[in-house]
Amino acid sequence: MMTMVSDRIGFMQGRLSTVVDGKIQAFPWEHWQDELRLANEQGLSLMEWTLDHDRLEENPLMTPQGQKQIKGLCEQYGVRVPSLTGDFLMQRPFFKSWGQEREALFGLFLKVVDACGANGIGKIIFPLVDNGRLENNEQREILAAYLKKAGTTLAKNNVQICFEVDMPPQEAGAFIKPLPEDLFAINYDIGNSAALGYDYRQELKAYGTRVMNVHVKDRPLGGTTVPLGQGNADIGGVIRLLEKEGYKGNYILQTARSQEGRHVEVLCRYRDMVWDHMET
């Protein structure tokens, strides 16, 4: 089954490990090395790194020794890490801080961009949702000014920012349109859009050409993440439309965790479901 198409189906780091502190998503400190081996055993060759604000600078992605270990394990197990989900940006958004704290948080962001460049990670998912959502024009202006400052560092490291947004289709399209395409794009989250009640056809019409990464999960209207097929998301409809429109990016499984602890089995089932939608 492992063809060029299935190599575009990946998983969010941590989904092959036990749940950390009851959180659906967190960096798996105790198991991150094992996940690469498990991915290889299950024919999964694509993983999205996840980075929390807590202990950020200790994360193996951020240290020379850790980077060497990541490279070695990825080569050993044939796993690529083309993207990183920046939960740290949502947990402590620099554009909602002030003074020295803002500068320090922005400095951390630039360090992460440099680390991504050193590790060959070409996309950073920037969540403008939940605690990271834009609440007013002042925050939008601050974000825009600091993104402009970051342009040189992004270009130097060949890193693209993919925003995850909770805006209505036309607003999201207007947000991304003026930003340089080589540096800024959209991460489309299928489950989040379903939970917000948006029509994916309208969303992809408004900004589909700027979608460069996709998170696959399911949520009911106004609800939290549930197993694929149990929420309001039309997973197949979204994937088929994206493929029809020429989308060549990845599908990252950011799916519900197994309540019975069968994380590997459940993730592989979800992988096969996405594969089936891509093939039809």
> What is the string of helix and strand elements?
EHEHEHHEHEHEHHEHEH
- Unreliable stretches: none
The tally of strands reads: 8
Query: How many helical stretches?
Result: 10
- The H-level CATH homologous superfamily, spelled out, is Divalent-metal-dependent TIM barrel enzymes
Task: Quote the beta fraction.
Answer: 15-25%
**Overall 3D geometry?**
globular
CATH topology: TIM Barrel
Tally the structural domains. 1
Largest sheet: 8 strands, parallel, barrel
Structural class: alpha/beta
CATH class annotation? Alpha Beta
Binned, the helix content reads: 40-55%
Task: Provide the residue-averaged pLDDT.
Answer: 94
Q: How big is the Rg?
A: 18 Å
Describe the fold and architecture.
The protein is of the alpha/beta class and 280 residues long. It has a single domain (6-279), classed as TIM Barrel (Alpha-Beta Barrel), CATH 3.20.20. It has helices at residues 32-41, 64-77, 87-91, 99-119, 137-157, 169-176, 190-196, 200-207, 235-244, 263-279; strands spanning 9-12, 46-50, 80-85, 123-128, 160-165, 184-189, 211-216, 251-253. The radius of gyration is 18 Å and the shape is globular.
Topology:
Layout: E1 9-12, H1 32-41, E2 46-50, H2 64-77, E3 80-85, H3 87-91, H4 99-119, E4 123-128, H5 137-157, E5 160-165, H6 169-176, E6 184-189, H7 190-196, H8 200-207, E7 211-216, H9 235-244, E8 251-253, H10 263-279
Helix pairs in contact: 1-2, 4-5, 6-8
What's this, in brief?
The chain is of the alpha/beta class. The chain is built from ten helices and eight strands.
